[in-house]
Amino acid sequence: xxxxxxxxxxxxxxxxxxxxxxxxxxxxxxxxxxxxxxxxxxxxxxxxxxxxxxxxxxxxxxxxxxxxxxxxxxxxxxxxxxxxxxxxxxxxxxxxxxxxxxxxxxxxxxxxxxxxxxxxxxxxxxxxxxxxxxxxxxxxxxxxxxxxxxxxxxxxxxxxxxxxxxxxxxxxxxxxxxxxxxxxxxxxxxxxxxxxxxxxxxxxxxxxxxxxxxxxxxxxxxxxxxxxxxxxxxxxxxxxxxxxxxxxxxxxxxxxxxxxxxxx
Length: 264
What we know:
Blueprint: H1 2-32, H2 44-47, H3 79-117, H4 120-123, H5 147-154, E1 159-160, E2 166-167, E3 169-174, H6 183-189, E4 200-203, H7 205-208, H8 215-224, E5 231-236, E6 241-250, E7 253-262
Antiparallel strand pairs: 1-2, 3-7, 4-5, 5-6, 6-7
């Protein structure tokens, strides 16, 4: 910056000497002009010379006009103007560097957000069946649902009350045999991914519903089974989620309803 200011000072001195020489040349030229014969002097107002119309140096005010010529080019400016330009240029460069730094900072911040929002499961591949919550089969394709169960489940009239409050859905699965299945057979029937190790328990209706809160559900299932035996299968789906299957046997099929419960 010091070298730049020194160069500005040197340039200023050169311009001053140049203007002084030009003024001296103009004065000598005026002295060499032939003078007209003496004549009666007119009024002082008529003998006054009009303002010099010769071009003035760029950036120099014309005498008596109060106007300036067009601003000088970069190499012909006054030291103060050159210093202001230098300061403005320095500030612009600083702003550009600051903008570049800000842009880099913004890119780093967006990269950080992408890393934070990335799903770890998507990087480690598909979830295994042992860690995912299983979806159990409730009806065979094209299976006929008894009317006693179809109407209320379609209208979601029956709700199992828990932390989730889920509706009962109809069940109709082809059963090999005329008796209610055991725990492992039931797990295979509903296509549990780990049937041999499935957490399945068989409950009496009275143990499952001691207060008769779901009497309508049990009675409708019993009617669909033509008065046959009705049991409740409890199937775990995780630490707090279980499914309750209220079912019986009719015509070689396991029929009834099931509901999801969240027991935290």
